[in-house]
C-alpha cells in the first residue's frame, strides 16, 4: 500500500460528489460543511444530528451502522462528523475527505465557548431533543485528541484500501484557500 499524501490543495480531476468532513470537536467541521454545501449544492448530513437520539441517548451499534450505511449509499452527500468506527463505510464511497487538523487549544476554546453560549439551547446540527451542555467528557476527548484521536484518524485513513483524495486543512487560511479552489473547480 502506498502512503497517502495529505495536501491543502484540491487536486481531484472530477468534481467531488461524496465528501467526508472530519476533525476534532471544535475544529470547525459544521461551519466549513455549510460553506462547502453552499458551493457544491450537495446534500449535507451532520452525523451528530443523525447519531444522537433525544436527551443525548446513543443508538445501538447495529442501528448506527445501518443508518450510516444507508446515508453513505446515497449518490451525493457531505457527511460531516468523525465517528471513526464508521470510517470504512463512508470511505468506501467518498471521493474526497476534508480533514480539519486544527490545533487542540483552538478546538478546546471553541468547544467551551460554544457550550457556554448555547447552554440549554437546541442546535440544528445536533439530534432532536439534545440541549447544549457543558460536558467535561467531551472537553477531555478534545484535550487528548492529538495523542489518541488524531493518531487513530491517520491510521484509519492510511490503512483504507479505497480510492479518495484527502485534503488536510490546518488553519482558517488553508480552509479559505480550499473553498476558493472548490469554487473555481465547480463554477
Protein described:
With 187 residues, the protein is an alpha/beta fold. It has a five-stranded parallel beta sheet with strand order 2-3-1-4-5. It has one domain: Rossmann fold, CATH 3.40.50. It is globular and about 45 Å long. It has eight helices and five strands, in the order E-H-E-H-H-E-H-E-H-H-H-E-H. The mean pLDDT is 91. The longest helix is centred in the last third of the chain and has 15 residues, at 172-186. Helices cover 44% and strands 12% of the residues.
Give me some keywords for this one.
187 residues; alpha/beta; Rossmann fold; five-stranded parallel sheet; 8 helices; 12% strand; globular
List the helices and strands and how they pair.
Blueprint: E1 18-23, H1 29-40, E2 44-46, H2 47-51, H3 61-72, E3 77-80, H4 87-91, E4 96-100, H5 104-117, H6 136-144, H7 149-159, E5 165-169, H8 172-186
Parallel strand pairs: 1-3, 1-4, 2-3, 4-5
